[in-house]
Every structure is written in structure tokens, then in C-alpha cells.
TrEMBL record:
It is a multi-pass membrane protein. NCBIfam families: mscL. InterPro entries: MS_channel, MSC/AndL, MscL_channel. Gene3D superfamilies: Large-conductance mechanosensitive channel, MscL, domain 1. GO terms for cellular component: plasma membrane. This is Large-conductance mechanosensitive channel. Homopentamer.
Amino acid sequence: MLKEFQEFISRGTVVDLAVGVIVGAAFNSLVSAITTYLLNPLIGLIIGQIDLSDMKFQVLGATFLIGDLINAIINFLIIMFVVFLIVKMMNRMRRDGSRSKFDQNGEEIPDPQTEYLQQIRDLLRYQQRHNNNNRY
């Protein structure tokens, strides 16, 4: 069982996941600091209250900490925007990687899959013409 665990842990995907979690946690703390120490004071100046985390209201004796909720929403929006930008960049890189390639002379290198499909198309056209000529 120890050997199986060692094989599992040494797989690339597990290591990639661990690195992603660690980077994500570090990024989360950075975004929280930006929200708490930069954005909240700016928003507080605009609405006239210096510390958003102290914003609260009471209804029938229950206290609602609206400032902490605002902080969480701001953190979420910042993180989701950065994730959106990363996914957008990855999609662009993937799309650019699948575009036509050129050799040293500047001539387009044909995609093998496209070439193969064109050969199949041409063969089917030839067979169709050949069968139409033999009918009469």
C-alpha cells in the first residue's frame, strides 16, 4: 500500500494540483489584503465610513455584519476576474497553437488531418464520377 501511495503522489497531476492549491491560497491571501487594506478604505471614504468591516445593522436584536459580506464579495469578484483572464489567455494560446504553421520559406505546412480528409473527399468524388459513367 505504501508503494501505491508513493506512485499516486508522484504522478504529475497530483503534484500540479498541490501546486495549484498552494498558489491559490497565496493568491487568496493577497487578494484579501488588497481588499482589506486598499479597496475598503477607498470605499469607506466614498460612503463616509472608514472601516467597512465594522458596518453592521441590527434587526430585533440580531446583528448582521454587512461589512464582512462586502469584503467576501469583493474578494470573490477579484479572484473570479483573474481566473476569467487566465482561462481567456489559455484559450487564446490553445487557439493560436492550432493555427496553420509555416516552414522556413514562408509556405504553409498543411495539417495532416486536413490533408487526409481532402484525400478522402477526392476519392469519394472520383468514385461517384466513375459510378455515374458506368451506369449508362
